[in-house]
Amino acid sequence: MARAGVTTERLVRAGAELADEIGFDRVTPSELARRFDVKVASLYSHVKNAHDLRTRIALLALDELADRAAAALAGRAGREALVAFAGVYRDYAREHPGRFAAAQLRLDPETAAASAGVRHAQLMRTILRGYDLTGPDQTHAVRLLGSFFRGFVALEADGGFDHSPPASGASWTRLLDVLDSLLRDWPRP
Amino acid sequence: MARAGVTTERLVRAGAELADEIGFDRVTPSELARRFDVKVASLYSHVKNAHDLRTRIALLALDELADRAAAALAGRAGREALVAFAGVYRDYAREHPGRFAAAQLRLDPETAAASAGVRHAQLMRTILRGYDLTGPDQTHAVRLLGSFFRGFVALEADGGFDHSPPASGASWTRLLDVLDSLLRDWPRP
DNA sequence: TCCCCTTGCCTAAACCCTTTAGGAAGTTCT
DNA sequence: AGAACTTCCTAAAGGGTTTAGGCAAGGGGA
């Protein structure tokens, strides 16, 4: 009987595609098996279980995102870096809604520690090198940016900005300006 | 045969409790039926289907949140209002993680329009009455606050701030100060 | 080349969740 | 009490998840 050539690698990659097509929550071993024209049970040699599959997709997404962010930040600083990083983040969410949803899967602490989430934190600190922030306030600023990016993109994805002007893109651009200004002129405690 | 006294109301309320106990994604008709000591099929007289149940829980959470926010904002303005609103939001997420997750369920446009989400937007505008913001920048500011609140609380819930100091609470307090300062001194375009 | 061993995929089966159809028992109103 | 309605039930179909056990394809070694 001919082999379909399923591997963990290909499974995860296909799962990511599938997530972008039909939504991360509908990515199931069953659906994937259908796509590979293989019986469901066959997947369980490559992936521990459904949760394992979803976790691997999440890790893939985090990795891709960190790769793009790193590329975008190369050679930039300050405002330019901020805008570049933010653009990567938002574009990824729009191009790959399923992967982006996956990236927000809650990971258990050990998995999270080994994930690209750590790289993300590092990259954010890189952005701030262009501004004059030190000590705890640097961490606070990282958290402000991270929260804003994540919150904005999530709200946008949920259509939260659709039913009143201005368009979400206008807010995005303007708010990046505002944040740049805030970082340059960070209030003293 | 004795009746269990199931109603849509009690079902949704129990579903919300359940969400806080075991997570919103694990709230299922089956689990609820077990809690009410009733056969699963019996629920379908009170609730259209699983999705309907989840939507109702989401609407309940949005309503509760708006109620609390409205109460907290009464008689406050400016910085005080900002801190009060933010506190309500974060406390609710910590006290009721399942309900909070439910509140972020993606609703179809009609349902969303009829939800308390609209009240939320209104309340945020109330906060800004204490600051000197008009026109599009007022909307941008609302979106900044909404994105930050949502993003921060989500990241905090996912344990994103757990593995490096300072504690997330310190960032929260400090960042509210920073945002207050930003709103008072909003940069010109 | 032949054998063997690993590995990929299969069948079978158990279990749980969702949803619909149709029926019986309890409740309410007249 | 009888009619009408509501609540809850049984039965059954349809999927998704997961494990156990088996057959055969493909690669490595004698």
Compute the CA-based radius of gyration of chain A: 19 Å
Helix content of chain A: over 70%
Percent of residues in β-strands of chain A: under 5%
- The total strand number of chain A stands at 0
The first-to-last residue Cα distance of chain A is 70 Å
Q: How would you classify the quaternary structure? A: homodimer
Report the principal-axis shape of chain A: elongated
Main sheet properties of chain A: none
Notes on the structure:
Two copies of one chain form a homodimer. In chain A, helix 4 packs across helix 6 and helix 8 crosses helix 9. The model of chain A has no long low-confidence stretch (mean pLDDT 93). In chain A, 70% of the residues lie in helices and 0% in strands. Chain A is mostly helical. The first copy, chain A, is elongated and about 65 Å long. The longest helix of chain A has 24 residues. At the A-B interface, helix 7, helix 9 and helix 10 of A face helix 7, helix 9 and helix 10 of B. Chain A binds a DNA duplex (30 and 30 nucleotides) through helix 2 and helix 3.
Features:
homodimer; mainly alpha; 10 helices; 70% helix; DNA-binding
